[in-house]
Automatic annotation (TrEMBL):
The keyword Transferase applies. GO terms for molecular function: kinase activity. The keyword Protein transport does not apply. This is NBD/HSP70 family sugar kinase. It comes from Kribbella orskensis.
Length: 402
């Protein structure tokens, strides 16, 4: 059974939903298309007939059915479009070009200073350079940022780590590059990618938790990303926390004692230096290397971080009640050391009915952030909740027009 990213709007944009489904899920029968998108078989037959005539879709091999004639699979004939994804960080912008099936076709990084006077203008020029040559194949641009975004459709950003407050990222980029632009919190973009290509194809309620420079959480409920009243849901890195040392280190948000101030990258390095496990110039890589080469003190730092994460995450589980948790981010490279503290702390803190909730740790590559941003565009055909507003509508219109 095909598990869809969600129903699509009715009307003349139905073709974009069918093309999007075939692109993200591969060859599919008409019956499965109808079931996945909530369409009538007659509508699917009519629309796919037109798509076949236009050369976008073709009939492939037959597969056995549960009765009657074998079902014919439908697949895309050509590349129906690409999306550009950009992940903005404190020192660079990662940009990828992604096909409808999630394949990363190209990947590049640009040095970037978000605190510069013309930072958003510089971002516009970076993206304009990358979209040159894509012509009408470009469906839109997705941008992921480490902060709160009022809405994907608007794209006004508050990101303390970038020095941005009410930054008009979406409006400025649309005006500069002339294509649909959707903006969201970077962890939410990873949750969107999981909905299209990963664990979200089998689950409608899940958490995507990232460990690395900070601690983030994307929340998916009933198949849609939960963003909260102001776009800031999932900031679990700023849960007030307690540490055995009893101190309350300052956090980038302006508060003290936040979870990520203890177990984000900077917090782990600070602990490693304070305990003389690494030198004053030591980095997180230095600390991880020490753990991997058998340094018990280094391993203990990661285990304590895992225990703190486990306790905090148990509280989120009790609040949201997800089917599964996905862990990813740069920090999973050292997960074997986190896990020794995480697993007992997490399970011990859960109510009996929640103790068996699965935690899946996914391998990490740097371009996943930017691929997630591109998923904001590629999920537009399934945006029945209207998260992308006019920008999603423009993407769907482009896809349908092809």
């Amino acid at each position: 059974m095909v598990n869809s990213p969600g129903p699509i709007p009715r009307g003349d944009l139905v073709p974009s939903g069918i093309v999007g489904l075939l692109g993200t899920q591969g060859p599919t029968s008409r019956t499965e298309i109808a079931r996945a998108l909530g369409l009538s078989p007659a509508t699917v037959t009519q629309v796919t007939k037109d798509l076949i005539a236009r050369g976008l879709v073709e009939e492939l091999e037959s597969v056995p059915s549960k009765g009657g004639r074998p079902a014919r699979l439908l697949g895309l004939v050509t590349d129906a479009g690409v999306a550009l994804g950009a992940k903005v960080t404190a020192d660079h912008v990662a940009v990828v070009t992604v096909e409808l099936d999630g394949t990363v076709r190209s990947s590049v990084e640009h040095e970037y200073d978000p605190t510069a006077e013309d930072a958003i203008g510089r971002l516009s020029r970076i993206l304009a350079k990358e979209i040159a040559g894509l012509d009408d194949r470009l469906l839109g641009v997705g941008v992921g940022v480490p902060g709160s975004v009022d809405s994907q459709a608007s794209g006004i950003v508050d990101a303390p780590t970038l020095g941005w407050q009410a930054a008009p990222v979406g409006p400025a980029l649309r005006a500069a590059i002339g294509t649909p632009v959707l903006v969201d919190n970077d962890v939410n973009t990873l949750a969107a990618a999981e909905r299209l290509y990963g664990i979200g194809r089998d689950h409608s309620a899940y958490l995507v938790v990232t460990i690395g420079r900070g601690i983030g959480c994307g929340i998916v409920v009933d198949g849609g990303i939960y963003r909260g009243a102001n776009g800031g849901a999932g900031e679990i890195g700023h849960i007030p926390s307690w540490h055995p040392d009893g101190d309350e280190p300052p956090c980038t948000c302006g508060s003290t004692g936040c979870l990520e101030a203890y177990i984000g990258a900077a917090g782990l390095v600070r602990t490693g230096r304070d305990r003389a496990v690494i030198g004053r110039r030591g980095t997180l890589s230095t600390l991880l290397h020490a753990a991997m080469t058998g340094d018990g003190k280094a391993q203990q730092i990661f285990a304590e971080a895992g225990a703190m994460l486990g306790r905090a995450l148990a509280g989120v589980i009790h609040t949201v009640d997800p089917e599964v948790v996905v862990l990813m981010g740069e920090g999973v490279d050292g997960w074997e050391f986190w896990q020794t503290g995480f697993e007992p702390s997490f399970r011990r803190s859960l109510l009996p009915a929640r103790k068996e909730v699965p935690v899946v740790v996914e391998p990490w590559t740097e371009d996943q952030w930017a691929r997630g941003a591109a998923s904001l565009v590629l999920s537009s055909p399934f945006d029945s909740a209207g998260n992308g507003g006019e920008q999603s509508r423009l993407v769907r219109a482009k896809l349908g027009a092809r």
